[in-house]
Write a structure and sequence with these properties.
elongated; disordered C terminus; Rossmann fold; 3 domains; ATPase_dyneun-rel_AAA; five-stranded parallel beta sheet; three-stranded antiparallel beta sheet; about 525 residues; alpha/beta; 20 helices
Length: about 525
């Protein structure tokens, strides 16, 4: 194998700066999968999208390890990729802590092509329309050189020894990489070898080292990767712990300490952080001791026999028969452990409390979870045993009181708990996105979408659904995979309102020329 020298790679990348990533990369995916205007093609049965692009746009090509999230996107400078600002401004290769978003379902770029009538189909099955070629040739300028893309595609793996011209390298790409004889007609005016052919560069006999590629093409990324790092474990631990100044936690702790309440309910619509809060508070109160905190989730199949006490089959080896024995179940066992260790607090988290029939699951125990009835003995109806619930056992439950498909939270149930209402919170979302360094434009659009949804959904739409947003691809994926199906259900009998909101959101997610491209975000 022979190799392009670094100066050749740099010159080609400099010319690619003017070419839209939003168009070059998806069009290359279409061309590689032999997508034309005649027939629908299932790309998942050909070269595919994400995995295909990973071959050419992964940091693994030069030995860069993936990030803690498993991402390893590495691309040359392209129009729409933020290579001229941020921590790595000026580097020829940009590494980003995001996935490739090359597939038809996730990518907002492909979706916009579909909305513009340039492609047809959904997910992996697609074809071009007659309008595609004209727009493709507008977006990819006439002075684009396919040779520049070829250099990137072969930059680090090398060129076969027998190749001595650009047309021969094109043949290698088509026949050996893509298993094609030629690209289909809609691409040929841009994905072609220049005529007359450009001079073939002098190639290297030996491949530069990965370190050399990084130092020469991405010096700032190289400095970042080789700098001492704060332990991921310590950083993760600090992010996952709840602070003593957290208002909900400090309020709950105060109520526990003065004996006002020992059972708490975090109530609110989905996505408001109820489950996360409950876990974090439980871990903090129990000092991260797994023996002193337990996490359960109620569902319709849970009963008193599963939760308090009940009969269980037991095989006896003596006579080979099955006998039924009365035994304590999860709640009484946990309560007994707490009773034996009065100096420490024990915490039971019950997620989705009202998805089970709470009165039937708790039975007579429901009365004795109140703080005023702790340590007071009562009789269990099955065993006849007299027990009490210790005051060092804390209950934290979560529930969506607006879910009409589950058991209502009646007054008798609610008065056993100290209730904290968890509402969608724009301030929490905005602060989180800004703290994570999300691009200002992405932040604004995320908040705008959050606001739209909280005007449409009767009980609001939770902020936690958006906490993972880092770029517009993430926001688009959340819209497609989470929000849109829920919106259809909510506005099932109001089609006009659904169409109006859908149009507003699609407009909000539309790509603009000054933003990061369809398969990436800001520098990572």
């Amino acid at each position: 194998m022979k190799y392009f020298d670094i100066s050749t790679i740099k010159v080609c990348i400099e010319r690619l700066e003017k070419v839209s990533a939003n168009w070059l990369l998806p069009s290359f995916v279409f061309a590689a999968n032999d997508i034309g205007i005649e027939n629908f093609v299932d790309m998942s049965k050909k070269l595919g999208t994400d995995q295909f692009l990973d071959r050419y746009f992964s940091g693994a090509r030069i030995g860069i390890p993936p990030t803690s999230k498993g991402n390893n996107l590495l691309r040359p400078r392209l129009k729409g990729i933020a290579w001229d600002r941020g921590n790595f401004a000026g580097d020829y290769m940009i590494r980003q802590d995001t996935k490739m978003w090359g597939n038809l379902f996730s990518s907002r770029g492909y979706r916009e092509m579909r909305l513009q009538g340039l492609i047809e189909g959904e997910k992996a099955v697609t074809k071009l329309t007659g309008s595609f070629q004209q727009q493709f040739e507008i977006e990819i300028p006439p002075d684009f050189l396919f040779e520049d893309l070829l250099v990137w595609l072969f930059a680090f793996e090398g060129v076969p020894d027998q190749v001595s011209s650009w047309s021969e390298l094109m043949e290698v790409l088509l026949q050996e990489h893509l298993n094609l004889d030629s690209f289909k007609p809609p691409y040929r005016n841009r994905f072609k070898i220049s005529q007359p052919e450009l001079p073939w560069p002098q190639l290297l006999d030996e491949r530069p080292s990965n370190e050399t590629y990084l130092q020469e093409l991405s010096p700032k990324l190289y400095a970042y990767l080789t700098a001492p790092k704060v332990s991921d474990e310590r950083e993760s631990e600090s992010k996952s712990k709840i602070g003593s100044d957290d208002p909900l936690y400090s309020s709950m702790l105060s109520l526990i300490d003065n004996g006002s309440a020992l059972a708490f309910l975090l109530a609110g619509p989905p996505g408001t952080g109820k489950t996360r809060y409950a876990r974090l508070i439980a871990e903090e109160i129990s000092n991260m001791d797994p023996a002193r905190n337990i996490f359960l989730q109620f569902h319709p199949a849970i009963s008193y026999d599963d939760f308090i006490e009940g009969f269980r089959p037991k095989y006896t080896e003596e006579d080979g028969k099955v006998k039924y024995e009365l035994s304590k179940r999860v709640f009484l066992n946990f309560a007994e452990n707490a009773r034996k260790d009065p100096k420490n607090k024990y915490v039971m988290v019950i997620d989705e409390l009202n998805r089970g029939d709470v009165a039937r699951i708790f039975g007579e125990v429901l009365t004795y979870i109140e703080s005023t009835y702790r340590n007071i003995e009562f009789t269990l109806p099955y065993s006849g045993e007299r027990i009490s619930i210790p005051d060092n056992l804390i209950l934290i439950a979560t529930a969506n009181p607006y879910d009409r498909s589950v058991i209502d939270l009646d007054d008798a149930l609610l008065r056993r708990f100290w209730v904290y209402e968890m509402d969608p919170d724009k301030a929490i979302l905005q602060n989180h996105l800004e703290t994570e360094g999300v691009d200002e434009n992405v932040c604004k659009r995320t908040i705008q979408l959050f606001t739209i949804l909280n005007e449409v959904f009767p009980y609001g739409y939770g902020h936690s659904s958006f906490l993972g947003v880092r770029d517009l691809n993430d926001l688009s994926a959340i819209w497609m995979g989470k929000i849109r199906p829920a919106l259809k259900r909510t506005l099932l009998h109001d089609k006009n309102s659904y169409i109006s909101v859908e149009g507003e959101v699609e407009s909000l997610l539309k790509i603009r020329a000054d933003e990061p491209d369809f398969i990436g975000g800001e520098d990572a």
